[in-house]
Structures are given as structure tokens and as C-alpha cells.
């Protein structure tokens, strides 16, 4: 009986090892199988011309009650802050923020999320609570609903993926036009997005801002959680990379990894993608601006971190912890944050802290926005 039991144990061990090997080698393929829609891409009907005149088309907008607007949430600090750096800054002048949310639609039944999908929209509100709230010093925050591309659109080489992203961008572009129409022409604007939202923001900068009078109104742009090629993307976006904390009219961008970092899937996908100049991005440098220094220095100790938003298990609440993580831009263009901090269960393989790109530096980002808007006003 003992020998038979050992045979069973050995068989189970072999099976577990085999499963782990399969997951390691074919993890991306299995993920794609689970998330990439099998249906052909179906062109979605255009939104009505005045669709974004309806407040219901916005997750955040100036007419919304503060207690119902996820972007207006202000977390509290954990414990005493005596003797620690503070994010205090001169109150900025009036400014307006346009924030594009990341991917929250995981369903493979559609290439683009239908408006009104409860699961996806509930998750967007959670994301905005943690990612758009650093901009809450703004006089107006606008965060549109749009028919985002499903997660599987990023996991296929087929044309449907780009078609889904193009369709999502058309909604974003329409919302952006409505945002501009509702914002006084003398008001500085801040543009921000994370992940899929950052990808759409990059395209907005390229098509709607670069080389146009509107560029002079942009106090700052935050394209976070999506790799921006310094060679193949940034020149077409019309704004330089931020190199100082008091520099207005520039782009901040970073992608966070704890150490040891394994960014192989991200870098492989980046290398195969095509830049705004029509050339493969390859091993071109990725833009990394340090959120702890405003881009001034590539490395910064945790003592400069004014407050990391450490969430609860569902990402719906949290508190600010001072000095939680450092930040260092490495030669690959990744932002390294040292040993893996405890942020929750949504850390991706390879120590990829993608979901936490903004919460890790919540208070520094809030201060950074104020610095840049003040610098924009001073330059006027």
C-alpha cells in the first residue's frame, strides 16, 4: 500500500510540474485563447453627433456631485506624517483635466465593450478612484465613457485587434472635441490616460495637438502604463519629454516593475509594434520619466515618495503611505521600484506593477500636476 501511495504522489508531482511547464511556455497563448474574441470584427454604429452632451456619457464631469464622482476622491494618510516630506504646493490656477481610463472589458463576445456593460463600467469607476483622483485639484475633470477595445484585442496579431482600437479611439476623439468645446479657451488643460487610455492619449496628441494652437494650452500630458518610443513616437506627439519638475507642456510616462523584473512579454510586444513614423519600434529607447523627481533625475530614493496609495483588496478604498517605494529608470526604459511592495493581488507576472503605476506615486503625481500648471501660468 505504501509503495502504491508513493507512486500516486510521484504521478501527481510529475503532473503538477508538467502543468507549470505548460503555463510557463504557453502562458501567453493560453491567455489569448481565453480572451481573444473568436467572432469576426463587426463595425459599431457611430455615436450620435451630440452624444457627449449627455452627462450620462461621462464617468466624471464638472456637473457631477463630488460624492458621486470617483475622480474627486481624496484618500487619507496612514499614521503621522511629522518630519516627513509634504506634497504642499501653491494652489494652481483653474485647469481642466481630460482622463482616458484603462481597459476594464475582458469579455470575448465582442471586440469592443458595449455601452452599459455593468461589470466593465463598475471596474472603470474603481480605476478612476485610484488613477484619476491625483488630478482632483483641477477645477474640472472629464472622464468619458467610450467603447473600449476588449483585453483580447492586445493579444492578437490579427487585424481585428487594431480595428477594435481604432473604433475605441473614434469615441475618445469625439469626447475630446466635446471636452474642448465645454472648456474656456483660456483655461490650461492636462491630458492623462493609463494603459489603453495612454495609447489613445498618444494618438490624440499626435492627431489633435501636435503642430496646432491647442499645444500651447497643454500644461502637461501623462501617458502612463504604455511604452512610448523616444525615437518613433515622441517626435510625432508634439510635446517633449519632461526633464524638470517645473517644466510645462511636456510628457510624463512610466511603466512600473519591482525587482527582479521580467519584462520580456512587454518588450517583445513593443519590439514588434509599429511606431508613429511607420517604423518598427524594435529596441528603440522607451520613454521613462521619474514620477518622484518630475523627470529631473533617473533615480530617486523612497524618502522622496510623498505618498503611495495602498489599496484594499478590491481597489475601492485605500490610504496614503509615505516613503513606500523608490523609483529608478533603467536602461531599458522601465521604472524599477525595488523590492516588491505589498499592493494587492493584481500584480502581473514578472513583477509587473502595471495596475499600480499611478497609485504607487499618487501624492507625487498630485504635486507634479500643480507644479506644471503653475509653471504654465508663470510662462504666460
Low-confidence stretches: 1-27, 82-86
N-to-C order of helices and strands: HEEEHEHEHEHEEHEEEEEH
Average pLDDT, rounded to a whole number, is: 90
Structural class based on helices, strands and sheet pairing: alpha/beta
Helix residue percentage? 25-40%
Strand order in space, largest sheet: 1-4-3-5-6-7
Ends apart, CA distance between termini: 86 Å
Number of helices: 7
Structure description:
The longest helix has 34 residues, at 2-35. The strands form 3 sheets. This protein has a 6-stranded mixed sheet with strand order 1-4-3-5-6-7, with helices on both faces. It has a 4-stranded mixed sheet with strand order 8-13-12-9, with no helix packed on it. Strands 2-11-10 form a 3-stranded mixed sheet, with no helix packed on it. It has helices at 2-35, 118-131, 159-182, 196-209, 234-237, 264-272, 362-379; strands at 58-60, 76-77, 96-100, 140-144, 189-194, 218-224, 251-252, 256-257, 299-300, 308-311, 318-321, 327-329, 335-336. 31% of the residues lie in helices and 12% in strands. With 380 residues, the chain is an alpha/beta fold. The relative contact order is 0.13. Helix 2 (118-131) links the parallel strand 3 (96-100) and strand 4. The N and C termini lie far apart (86 Å). The model is unreliable at 1-27 and 82-86 (pLDDT under 50). The protein has 7 helices and 13 strands. The radius of gyration is 21 Å and the shape is globular.
Amino acid at each position: 500500500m505504501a509503495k502504491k501511495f508513493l507512486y500516486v504522489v510521484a504521478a501527481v508531482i510529475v503532473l503538477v510540474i508538467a502543468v507549470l511547464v505548460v503555463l510557463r511556455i504557453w502562458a501567453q497563448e493560453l491567455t489569448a485563447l481565453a480572451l481573444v474574441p473568436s467572432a469576426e470584427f463587426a463595425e459599431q454604429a457611430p455615436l450620435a453627433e451630440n452624444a457627449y452632451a449627455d452627462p450620462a456619457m461621462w464617468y466624471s464631469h464638472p456637473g457631477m456631485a463630488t460624492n458621486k464622482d470617483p475622480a474627486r476622491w481624496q484618500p487619507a494618510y496612514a499614521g503621522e506624517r511629522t518630519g516627513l516630506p509634504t506634497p504642499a504646493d501653491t494652489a494652481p490656477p483653474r485647469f481642466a483635466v481630460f482622463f482616458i481610463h484603462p481597459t476594464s472589458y475582458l469579455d470575448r463576445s465582442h471586440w469592443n465593450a458595449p455601452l452599459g456593460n455593468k461589470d466593465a463600467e463598475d471596474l472603470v469607476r474603481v480605476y478612476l478612484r485610484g488613477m484619476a483622483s491625483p488630478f482632483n485639484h483641477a477645477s474640472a475633470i472629464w472622464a468619458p465613457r467610450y467603447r473600449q477595445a476588449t483585453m483580447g484585442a492586445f493579444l492578437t496579431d490579427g487585424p481585428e485587434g487594431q480595428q477594435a482600437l481604432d473604433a475605441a479611439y473614434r469615441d475618445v476623439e469625439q469626447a475630446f472635441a466635446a471636452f474642448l468645446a465645454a472648456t474656456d479657451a483660456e483655461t490650461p488643460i492636462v491630458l492623462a490616460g493609463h494603459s489603453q487610455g495612454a495609447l489613445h492619449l498618444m494618438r490624440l496628441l499626435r492627431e489633435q495637438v501636435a503642430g496646432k494652437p491647442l499645444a500651447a494650452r497643454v500644461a502637461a500630458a501623462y501617458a502612463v502604463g504604455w511604452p512610448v518610443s523616444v525615437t518613433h513616437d515622441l517626435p510625432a506627439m508634439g510635446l517633449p519629454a519632461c526633464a524638470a519638475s517645473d517644466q510645462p507642456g511636456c510628457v510624463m510616462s512610466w511603466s512600473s516593475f519591482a525587482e527582479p523584473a521580467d519584462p520580456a512579454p512587454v518588450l517583445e510586444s513593443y519590439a514588434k509594434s509599429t511606431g508613429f513614423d511607420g517604423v518598427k519600434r524594435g529596441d528603440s529607447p522607451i520613454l521613462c520619466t521619474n514620477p518622484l523627481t518630475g523627470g529631473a533625475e533617473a533615480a530617486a530614493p523612497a524618502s522622496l515618495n510623498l505618498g503611495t496609495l495602498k489599496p484594499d483588496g478590491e481597489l475601492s478604498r485605500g490610504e496614503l503611505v509615505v516613503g513606500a517605494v523608490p523609483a529608478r529608470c533603467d536602461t531599458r526604459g522601465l521604472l524599477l521600484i525595488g523590492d516588491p511592495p505589498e499592493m494587492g493581488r493584481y500584480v502581473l507576472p514578472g513583477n509587473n506593477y502595471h495596475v499600480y503605476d499611478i497609485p504607487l506615486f499618487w501624492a507625487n503625481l498630485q504635486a507634479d500636476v500643480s507644479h506644471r500648471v503653475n509653471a504654465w501660468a508663470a510662462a504666460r
